[in-house]
Input
Amino acid sequence: MLIDTPMITAYPPRTAKPRFLRCIAPILAALLMLAGCGTTTVKSTTFTHLEQETAVIPESQLLDLGVIPFDPGLDEADEDEMVRPEVRNAESRYFASQLVATLQNSGAWGPVRVIPGVDTVVDVYVEGTILHSDGEKLELAIVATDASGKQWLNKTYEEVASVYAYDKRRTQNRDPFQGLFNRIANDLRQQRDMLPAGRAEELRTVSQLRFARSFAPDAYDRHIRENRKGELEIVRLPASNDPIMQRIERIRERDYLFVDTLQEHYDTFKRQMDPPYQSWRAESYEEVIAARQLKKQSTARMVGGIAAVAGGILAATSSNSATQVGGIMAAGAGGMLIKSSLEKRQEAQMHIEALAELGESLEVAIEPRVIELEDRTITLTGNAEAQYAQWKALLQQIYDAERGIDAGQGPAAPIEQVQ
Output
């Protein structure tokens, strides 16, 4: 009897992967992923337009606004941030001037100036701190306070420039971060619009009395006082024909003249700084992006190299000869990645040094200026605060001299109680 025997088809045996490839393949794959990573992120911002005042504001309600040169924020800078003190010190004045120009364009205020400090009496003060500025991102902390000491605004503003911000073919002839300054101006205007009826006139009076008290404390110290909130409030008003106040008002007009002359200095500084600064920004933008990518690649290659060396050493100790060969190859590849990492870091340092050279070249644009007054020439060789302190001392001398001449006129007019 015949028995059918099933046919067995013989297939060639599957070729087994060498053990060292199974051990090393995951490491090599990780190395390729780490060493090859390097993406370009395109950032863009939504431009904020400046809100402009369309209604006619009575002169009695127009508030004077003073912007103090910003704090460079050198103490606040991160260790990884490429900060040049020369650039930051220049930016402290540049940003103040840019904010002043933006506020002037809004048409919502009286005179808007860059002022040396809080010793200059105005209706509203704006102070800022540069938290970050590298051409790619700008971050500012802004605090606004009125003459009474009441805080209007305490806010941080941040904006990231688009990659097209420095493309001359796409430029819209505006600062890459103008939208940020527009937001500050819009917020300040909103705070002003929220003032109760009559508060603007009251703040103007507080400014007047503060200025008068700084020259004649005996006469005006009791006209304003600090309340429980730490804010100044009016207690009484001087008479409309008060000769001391009339004299002080003439002194204040001279003070306005000096502050306006300082504003011309800041405006000239901004105009001269603008070309080299915008070039620095464009270069800095590219340097920051390049440095960040290089650091990422450097770190990835360093980590990958160390992992490869460690894995290679482990595989080299295997009893299997093929695995040992693979381990030696992985260790060698890891060593090459570490070497590449160090080269990348050196290249990044070259970019940082390039930023330093650009910052030093920018310093040329902030030399002292000579300003002309009506009756004298003043050289601003020191900082603005020192110059203004000398000016206030001179005004005090002028006031004392005038008061001495008028000493025989008799006592000042009576004061009026605030209702």
Q: What stands out?
A: The two ends are 133 Å apart (CA to CA).
